[in-house]
Amino acid sequence: MRVELQNIRKHFGEVRANDDISLIFEPGKIYGLLGENGAGKSTLMKILSGFQKPDGGKIILDGKARRFDSPADALAAGVGMLYQEPLDMPPFLVLENYLLGQRRGFAVNARQAAKDLRELGKKYGFDIQPEEHIRDLSLGERQQLELLRLLAGGAQLLILDEPTTGISTEQKVLLFDSMRKLAKDEGKTLILVSHKLDEVQDLCSQVFVLRKGKLVGEAKLPCPNELLVNLMFEKLPPRRERASREQKQVALELKDAVVATPRLELQPLNLTVYAGEVFGLAGLEGSGQEILLKACAGLLPIRSGSMQLGHQPLDQLDYHAARAGGISYMAAGRVEEGLVAGLTLTEHMALVDQEAGFFVDWAGSRARTKERVQHFQVVGTSESTVEQLSGGNQQRFLFAMLPSSLKLILLEHPTRGLDIRSTDWIWQQLDERRKDGTAILFISADLDEVVERSDRIAVFSGGRMSRVVDAAKTNAEELGHLIGGEQ
Amino acid sequence: MDNGQLIAVLASILLQASPLIIAVCGETLTERAGIVNLSLDGTMLLSAMTGFVAAHLTDNLMLGFAAGAAVGAFFALIVAFSSIQLKQSQVATGFVLTLLGDSLSAFLGQEYTRLPGPSVPHFAIPILKDIPILGPIIFNQDGLVYFAILLIFATSWWLFRSRPGLELRSAGERPEAAFARGVNVRRLRYLYTVIGGALVGIAGAAYSLDVKIGWSEGHTRGLGWIALAIVIFGGWSPVRGAIGALLFGATKAAATVLQRAFPEVSVVAFNALPWLLMIGVLLLVSNKIVGRLLVNAPPALKRPLQRMLQVAPPAALGTELKNE
Amino acid sequence: MRPGWLDRIWPLLPVLAALAFTSVLLLLFKASPVVAFSAMLEGAFGSSERILNVIAFWIPLLLCAAGLLITFQAGLWNIGIEGQIILGSIGATWVALSLELAAPLQITLEILAAMAGGALWAGIAGWLKTRGGVHEIFGGLALNNLAIILTNYLISGPWQPPEGGSFRGTVPFGEHALLPLFDGSRFSPLALILAGTAFSIVMIALRNSTWGLKLKALGRNSRSAFLLGVSSNREAVLAMMFCGALAGLGGAVRVLSWFDSLRQSISGGIGYLALLVVMLAAYRVLWVPFVAFFFSAVLNGAIVLQLRTQLHSSLGDILTGVMVLFVLLLGDPIRLRGLRRAKDDG
Fold first, then answer.
1. What is the predicted ipTM?
2. Rounded to whole angstroms, how far apart are CA atoms A273 and A253?
3. Which CATH class for the A250-483 domain?
4. Are C157 and B268 an interchain contact pair (Cβ–Cβ within 8 Å)?
5. Where do the domains of chain A lie?
6. Same CATH fold assignment for domains A3-232 and A250-483
7. Predicted TM-score of the model (pTM)
8. What is the pLDDT of residues C80-93, one digit of tens each?
C-alpha cells in the first residue's frame, strides 16, 4: 500500500506536536522514523493509525483520501500499529484476545479459531499457545500476538513503535526476520519508530527524521550514524567525565537474601554496593530486578538471609523506616507512584517536611519550594499542581524533594520517557549525590544507559541475578547474553 | 429430619435464592462492563413496590415484572449517564439512588401496604419433576425459579463463550485496548448497565410477587447490599455468584432451623448472621488475611486454595475510557 | 467562556428541579404542592419551639457531616456512620444506666463513652479495609446493620424496662444524666457548643494541619502518599476513628437531648443524611453548616406535614435526595456544556 501524509498538523495548546509534515511510504519497504523524545513521532503515528485526529492535513492511501474515527477504522483501511506496550487484554486467553474485535459470527468456534491462529503463527515463525493467559506471556510474545492480530485484520501498513525495548535478543531476531519477510514477500509497508540507530540501520532502507514537530531530513540507508545524529539533535550535549570511584566503604550488603512475590521468587541474592557507586540492574521487565529494588526500599519483606545498610541490619525493614534511615526510592510511574495529582508543589514540600509539627508551616514550605524550584530548574511555580508539569519537570521536582543527605538512592527507570537534555541533567544530579558518598542502585530497560552510567552491572533473568560485571569492561553483547539467561 | 423434609427445605432455599440470583447475574453483567451500579438496594425496593402495585392494579403478573424491570433500567440509566457522560463518581450517584429508591418506595407505596395481589403460580415441569431428588427440588417450582436457573447459564455463556461477551469483558478490563479493536465501549457500558438494572428490577419485583408476597415499607431492605457483596464473592462470575446466593439462602434456612432447635438463644444472634457472613466472605476472598495465614503453607496446599478463594475485579471497574 | 447569567443562577437549578419533582409527586397524591410546602415551612419555622427543634436536629447532623469531611478528604466512603452514631448512643446509654454521679461528671463520662463507641465501630470498618481488604462501604454497611441488631437486643434484653418487653426503648434516664435543655425544648446549648468546637477543629485540621495535608494526599493517591512517607493505613484508620468519634458524639446528643433514652432507630437516618449534606456542599467546608441546617428544616417540616396531611414523611428524604441527585447530574454546567460539544463533534 502506498501511504501519503500531506501537511499533517496537530497542536496541543501552544505545543506544535506536528507542524505541517508531509511524507510518502512506498509498498514493500521498511522505513525508519527517528527523533528525540517529544519530536512528534508518536503523535504522527497515532494520527496515521486513527488514535488521534489531525487538526489539518490529509492521509492518502493508494490515492484515496481517508479519515479515521478510531484505530479499528484505520485497521479496516489497512493501517495497523503495534505499541510499545501491546494493547491487549492481560486476563484473557491468547485465543480470546485474538478474536476480540473480529467481526464474524456470534458464537465462537474455539477449536477452529485456535487452529487458524496456530497456523498463522507458524507462517511467521511464532510459536503460539492459544490456551495460555496473556498475563503469563513475555512482552515479546505479546508483541507477536499483536502483530498476528493486525495481519489477520488486514493490515497493509504496519507501524512498530520501539518494538525492541524489553524483549530478548532471540525475540528481536525473530521479529526482524518476520518484518523483512512481510516487506519482501508480501509487499507490505513497514514503519519502525525507534531511537536505536543500529536497529534502524540494520532493518530500514530509508529514514525520516523529525525534530520539534517538523520533518528535518531524510536519508537512504545505510549512511553514517553521525549524519543521523546531526539531524536528530541540534547540538549534542557534552558528555561529562565521571569522577572515578575511590571509596571502598560498603553502603548496602545482601547475604543470601530471599525475596518473593506471589508471581516470582528470587534466587538467594548476594550483593554489595559501595558508597559513591552507581550500580546498574539490567534485564527484561519482570525478571526480578524490580523485586530486588522494592526489597531494598522496604516494600517487600526479606524471607531469609540478611540485608545491611552500612553496619545497620535491615532485615525487618518497613518502607517508612527505610526512608527515615536514609534510603530513597523512586518508582517508574511518576504521577502514579511518587506525586499526588491535585496537590501543589508547596503542598508536596510540606508533606515531605521532616520537621513538620502538628501545623503546616505554609510560609516556610512555600519559600523552600521556590528556592528548590529555581535550583532544580523546574518549569512551574510553587502553586502549580504536579500534573501541570511536563514529565521531565515532574522528575526534576521529585529530585528536588529528596532529602539532602542520603545513604542509598533506588531508582526505577529514572529517565524513561525523558528527552536527552533532561536525562543528562538527571545523571548530573546523581553524580553530585555520588560525590557525597551516596550509593545509587538503578534499573533501566535501556542497555546503553546501563553501560554508560554504571560503575558495575548485574543482570536479572527469570528471577536469578547474574555475576556482577564491570561496566568499563563490558558491552551490550555480553549483557545481551546474560539477559538471555547465559551465565 | 427425613428425606421429604430435607427436599422441601432445599426447594425452599432455591426459591428464596432465586431473586438474589437474578440480581447477582444482572449486576455481574454491569460490573463486567466496567460500571458499578451501587444503587441495588434502592432499586430493588422501588421495583418491588412498583412491581407489586402494577400487578395489583392491573391484575396482570407480567405487567408487574415489566414495571419492576423498567424501574431498574431507569435507575441504571441514571448511573450510566452520570458516570459515562458526566464522569461523576459512580459511588456517589449509586449511593444517592440507594437512599432515593428507599424513600420513594415508602412514599409512593404508602397506600398499597399489606394488600393482596397476584403471585407467580406454581408450575411443575412434567417428566423432569419425576427425576428422583433433583426433580422435586429443581423442577417442582415456579416460573421465576426456572428463569433464574436459565439466567445463570445464559449470562455465563454470554460472558465467556460468545463474541459479544468478549467485547463486554474487554470494556471492563482495558477499555482503551477495546476501543482500539473497534469496540464501542460507551455504548456497551450503557447497554449492560441498563440490562443489568432491568434484571435487578425483575429481582425486586420477584420478592413482592413471589418470594415475599405483598408490599410493606422496607420490604427488601438490605438485600440489595447482600447481592452486591455476593457479586464480589462470586468473583464476577454468574455461576459462582449463584452458588453464593444459594449458600446465603442455605445459611438463612439453617438459622431458622437452629432457632427452632435452640429457642433459648436470642433471636439477635440469628439476625446478625447474614451481616457477619457478609464480612466473613469478603475477608475470605480479598485474600489479605488468608494470604497472611497461608504464608508458610506448602505450595501444594496454598496454590489451589488461593486460586479457589482469590478473586480479581475487572481491571477497569469504575474507571472511564480515555480515548486519546 | 465567561460566566453568563445562566452560570450565576445555575446553582439554584437543582433546588428548583427537586421542588418541581416533589410537586409532581404531591399532585399524584392529589395534594396541593403549595399547601404542602407551606406546611413544611410552617412546620420548620412556624414557632420558636419548632425553630429550636430544627436547631436540635441540626446539631448531630453537623457533627456527622464534620466527621465526614475528614473521611472524604482521605478518600473514604464512611457509609458506616449510621452504625457509629448508634454505637455512640449505646455508649452514652451504658454510662447513663450504670453510673449515678454528679451531673457534670456523669455527662462528661457519657460523652466520652459515646465517642469511644463511635470510634470503635469506625475503627473496625477501617481495620477491615486496611488489614482485611474489605471495602469500607461493605464493611460499614454490615456494621450498621449489626449496630441496629445490637440496639434491638439491648432494649429487648439486658436494658429492657422493668414493666416489660416492648421493643420501644430503655427507661428514661434521670435528670442528672441528660444534657441541660433550653427552655423545655429539645435543644441543648451545650451540644451546640460541642458541635461548634468540633466543626472548628475539623476546619483547622483540614486547612492548616499536617494531618489534614496527609489525608488530602491519601485521598487523591494513596500509593504516592505512602511513598512520600504517609503511613496510609494508620492515617486511614485514624480518619475513620476521628469521624466515628464525632458521629458517636452525635449519637450521645440524640439520646441525651433529642430523646431521653435509647430507642429503636435511634440514629434517625442522620448518618446517611450527613453524607448527602457533604455531597450537596460539594465537599466545601464552609457550605456544610448551611446545607445541614437546610436539610434539618426540610426533614422537620416533613414530619409536621405527615402529622397534618397523613402524607408519608419520606417526602422530606425524597426532596433532599433528589436535590443531591440533580446536583450530581446538573450541578456542573461546564460538564454539561462539554457534553453538548461532544455531541456536536459526533
1. 0.92
2. 6
3. alpha beta
4. yes
5. 3-232, 250-483
6. yes
7. 0.91
8. 999 999 999 999 99
